[in-house]
Design brief:
Helix content: 40-55%
Oligomer: single chain
Low-confidence stretches: 371-383
Radius of gyration: 23 Å
Number of strands: 15
Number of domains: 2
Structural class: alpha/beta
CATH architecture of the largest domain: 3-Layer(aba) Sandwich
Strand content: 15-25%
Mean pLDDT: 85
Largest sheet: 8 strands, mixed
CATH superfamily of the largest domain: P-loop containing nucleotide triphosphate hydrolases
CATH topology of the largest domain: Rossmann fold
Shape: elongated
CATH class of the largest domain: Alpha Beta
Order of helices and strands: EHEEHEHEHEHEHHHEEHEHEHEHEHHHEE
Strand order of the largest sheet: 8-9-7-10-6-11-12-13
Amino acid sequence: MFDKSWSAKIETKTAGLRKALEEIILSVDSFQVQSSGDNRRPDLLIFELGSEIDKEFSLIHSLLEEDVVGEIFLTSRSSDPSVILQALRAGAKEFFPHPIKKEELVQALVKFRQRREKAEAGETVRNGRIVQILGSKGGVGTTTVAVNLAIALAAQKNIQSVALVDMNLLFGEIPLFLEIQPNYHWGEIAKNIDRLDSTFLMNILTKHSSGIHVLPSPTKLNGHGTATPVIVQHMLNFMQKMFDFIIVDGGQSLYETSLKVLEMSDTVLLISILSLPCLSNANKLLRSFNDLGFFKNDAIKIVINRYMKNSEITLKDAKAAIKKDILWTIPNDYRSTISAINQGKSLSQIAPKAAITESFGHFAELLSKGEVQQKKGRKRFFG
């Protein structure tokens, strides 16, 4: 347990804003506010941008480069995305447009404290698990599974951070499923891969109310950077250092970047329904993965979506058809699912007590407790 206090310095243009910030900071345990005349190095500087933005960004960059401050939070009357992006590129950890919401600043201060305590304790770097969601056929609910599984994982007590990446290149629909309007997508990373760092990435990501961070796909291909296998590998490797889980919605297409994600994934969830075409496709995909020399056959898990106990095709039939065990079944609940999709909400919001929602919760719990073992130099999931 840490009993250290963290010092925060406030630089604002108005006394009223300074007073408000001071009250919020002092309401969080382990923080103290430095007086204006205190020239000691603060652990945190909260700085209000004024009219000379370029000059101030240059100053902020210098303060961080010369280690005059620990971290910097910025606030401004402008909420222009270009200003926010410039702020984070300058090295700021957080950006708060006016009026500052107390709960957002408190959350940022708590995260700051956690980062510093982990650094003091010498905690090892996070190595997040990549879970790719693939469909055996179009329309089997790949995005529904990816979205609701990511949200269910974020609700697990032992999971601190979850990212949801849409690699369904041209037809990614995750923003519609979550009713969010992202300013950026992974095309921005592809164009600026040499500048990828934690602040740049966190600005590109869109945070959903559930706590997950979303990286959408471009809505069109023209003018956007290409997600080559090399870029995807670099991006996911970086995200593994920041998130406990990275859920990748891979859609149904298999192309070079999808195969790179497949190669990197700790777990691949192949989604099917109990129909002959889907099971036949699942079988073909498994054989194709094997023919391509992928070592991940033991990490590829079959998930049956829209499962009904009275289906003409039983789970035993499915297992025999694809020659592989079924890891999980997600019950059929058309009404709740379509309502959630049409409203841009998760199943946990629309039907928190429904069997399908509970199924996602139990599935997330299983994934969060699964152990990744090493075998022949490769990762395996669930032994």
